[in-house]
Amino acid sequence: MVGASLAGATQVVAQPAPAAAQSPPELPWPYKPIDAAKAAQAAYDHYYAGGCMFATFEGITGELRQSVGYPYTSFPRYMLMYGEAGVAGTATLCGALNGAAAAIFLIAGGIRPERKELAFAMTRDLFTWYEQTDLPDFEPEVSLFDIVKSVSGSPLCHASVSNWCKAANAKSYSPERAERCAWLCGSVARRTVQLLDAAAKGGFKPTVALSAETQTCGSCHDHKSAREDTRGSMDCGGCHFTNQTTHSKLKL
Amino acid sequence: MVGASLAGATQVVAQPAPAAAQSPPELPWPYKPIDAAKAAQAAYDHYYAGGCMFATFEGITGELRQSVGYPYTSFPRYMLMYGEAGVAGTATLCGALNGAAAAIFLIAGGIRPERKELAFAMTRDLFTWYEQTDLPDFEPEVSLFDIVKSVSGSPLCHASVSNWCKAANAKSYSPERAERCAWLCGSVARRTVQLLDAAAKGGFKPTVALSAETQTCGSCHDHKSAREDTRGSMDCGGCHFTNQTTHSKLKL
Questions:
Q1: pLDDT for the residue B4
Q2: ipTM given for this complex
Q3: Distance between CA B136 and CA B126 in Å, rounded?
Q4: Which of A45, A189, B93, B188 is spaced 20 to 30 Å from A52 by Cα?
């Protein structure tokens, strides 16, 4: 454009050139306080358009597109549709949790160890809260059905769905189950905004402890234990010790 | 900038203004063929820098930043560090799979039903392949250890890690286990590029079937079945029917 007319140059300013070489800003991206109630409602509103992961991420970050603008305006949020129903319907990780974890890292995380550790601690707290809490604890302004609550006992889509189906005496592909998941996106978005708000004020502390049972399992199987043959913070009991199974005999 | 001098306007062109109001292009983003071997090596190379989800996503998409440029240059890829060790260390969904699923949706997916269904079918095929295949089947140019293979039987981080620990007689926080996960990122990135290549040529077809056992489970518990009380395509046997458990008695 060197040597172009002033009129031509003005057009460039009016219609910004594609940011061809522009890298995104480093993490964390700028934060402004988010209205938790609005985030929850927005997550619910977007569930039927793009599934659970997209909806929860959009609930948390949508307000920032207005209040902060760029770089949030540049993010391809529809990518997060991939997490629907535990990622592409595989029913692994709950999409509400997957979307919230992505949003937490974008807004509060970063490659520096102290930022990464903060985002990870917030994410783990969210996941454990989700496992142990009677959900959904959010109700939208207008809803398709009344929805009963259940404790998932697991961050996994299919386990969370199955436990709710049992509590509600409903089927896993019913419209009631879809509505329950839409409410759940609202619950997870609201909780996440509360965690972000606490972190922004410098006051985030984990609020939920692993179950006593899971701590016992970890003492023999997790980091720096005698066996050290697994890892993580999922509640063990949900899959490993149902009423049909017991622990193998311990050699004490 | 209207009325600014030509010199000033030229500066704007040389240093593009922040894309404050610019929305990202719709999905799918432009695709150019990716070198699968280079993608695998790049995924391995990035594992120690940002964890499994980041590494796998970067392995698949890094070449596109050069060959396509924008919009890939604008994507905040470090956000995907959130998926490390099954999301923030919770050991739920394998980060290599989480990162690959995100990349597939960005490159081959979209909000239109036919694009979404294609990306979902590719993702499900990748997940089932991961569950059933002796991995890692990629070996980097230079490696820290020799790594034995194992069948994960699950798309979950902690199950995949535990099954490998058993096969390798190694601990879950050992440097050998980390190296195994770095190789695994290479395997998943390479497989994903092969799926993207097939889809770009219009020839993607699912190549891996659910286990016979899982199909049997689904016939009573999944979509349109008598009970319809769960969903998904995770292999059931990995958690539900180990050598310690059996199915409750069927009323036939």
A1: 32
A2: 0.90
A3: 14
A4: B188
Cβ–Cβ contact A236 with B under 8 A: no
List of chain B residues whose C-beta atoms are within 8 Å of the C-beta of residue A71 = 76
Rounded to a whole number, what is the distance in Å from the CA of A38 to chain B's nearest CA? 23
CA dihedral A34, A35, A40, A41 (to 10 degrees): -120
Q: Which helix (H) or strand (E) holds B25?
A: none
A224 CB burial (10 A radius; 0-12, 13-18, 19+): exposed
pTM: 0.90
DSSP track, A101-151: HHHHHHHH--SSHHHHHHHHHHHHHHHHHHHHS-B-----SS-SS----B-
> With an 8 Å Cβ cutoff, are B109 and A69 in contact?
no
Whole-number pLDDT of residue A203 = 83
Work out the minimum CA distance from B172 to partner chain A, whole angstroms: 5
> Count of A–B CB contacts within 8 Å?
293
Q: How confident is the model at residue B247 (pLDDT cuts 50, 70, 90)?
A: confident
Maximal C-alpha separation, chain B = 86
Coil, helix or strand at residue B223: coil
Residue A150 to residues A53, A59, A116, A164, A197, Cα–Cα distance (Å) = 20, 22, 31, 5, 27
C-alpha distance across the termini of chain B, in Å:
79
